């Protein structure tokens, strides 16, 4: 019996309520709208289901692959021969205790920042327009407009790959630019506690509106993408370097360097993973040749 067929059988016995999907198109689970099928996907709606999924996989020697809302992910056209575990809305616990918020991994950042505003708490305005979930945002230390998750997250509940439950805090979280203790994919985020500061809800909303207007004005929100494609090089801005090299609007198949914001590679229609990777190579080679700066991918890849 195929190992994934055996895993499916064991999961159905160990956790009958766990939603499983075989050969699930990953294009449905990324904001790029790109990616072939995952051999097996689990969509746990609770910590207990997630734990059962990981423990069962560990028992068969299957290493899980963790994904969130897929807002920073590029998946191979051939898909993923593996076991994908995705945090969904069921992992959506959301509560406020004084100046602290606790959010499950499946909670969208727009929902989280809205709750903070409703409780007159400031510190998450930057997250309002980021199209990700808490689990993914913690994993990559998502940020914008001089704010980042590492500045507010104090504790993270997670599962080790074998299903062991842990809570990490302080220096254990290892936050740095677009990085955390979860970036290596060995831990599944269940939820995070954030410490915020009391503020004026009107001022908080005004700042959220300002950030929203900036995004709409500057970013290609009308086309599928994974946000900023490249990390910010020290002392530079990736978009400015790409623009300087006159690469705006450059295409490879269905992939395009956004005409609106050079830091975004977008799916202009029918783009494949191969199209995006070819365009990434062209951009990096051109920028290095013309400016001497080496660009590093911020977008994570899977199955490549």
UniProtKB/TrEMBL annotation:
GO terms for molecular function: UDP-N-acetylmuramate dehydrogenase activity. PROSITE patterns: FAD_PCMH. It catalyses: UDP-N-acetyl-alpha-D-muramate + NADP(+) = UDP-N-acetyl-3-O-(1-carboxyvinyl)-alpha-D-glucosamine + NADPH + H(+). Its main location: cytoplasm. SUPFAM superfamilies: FAD-binding/transporter-associated domain-like, Uridine diphospho-N-Acetylenolpyruvylglucosamine reductase, MurB, C-terminal domain. Keywords: Cell cycle, Cell division, Cell shape, Cell wall biogenesis/degradation, Cytoplasm, FAD, Flavoprotein, NADP, Oxidoreductase, Peptidoglycan synthesis. Its EC number is 1.3.1.98. InterPro entries: FAD-bd_PCMH, FAD-bd_PCMH-like_sf, FAD-bd_PCMH_sub1, FAD-bd_PCMH_sub2, MurB, MurB_C, MurB_C_sf, Oxid_FAD_bind_N. Pathway: Cell wall biogenesis; peptidoglycan biosynthesis. Signal peptide: none annotated. It is an enzyme of class 1 (oxidoreductase). It is found in: Cytoplasm. Residues 33-199 form the FAD-binding PCMH-type domain. The active site is at residues 178, 228, 298. Its cofactor is FAD. Belongs to the MurB family. Cell wall formation. This is UDP-N-acetylenolpyruvoylglucosamine reductase.
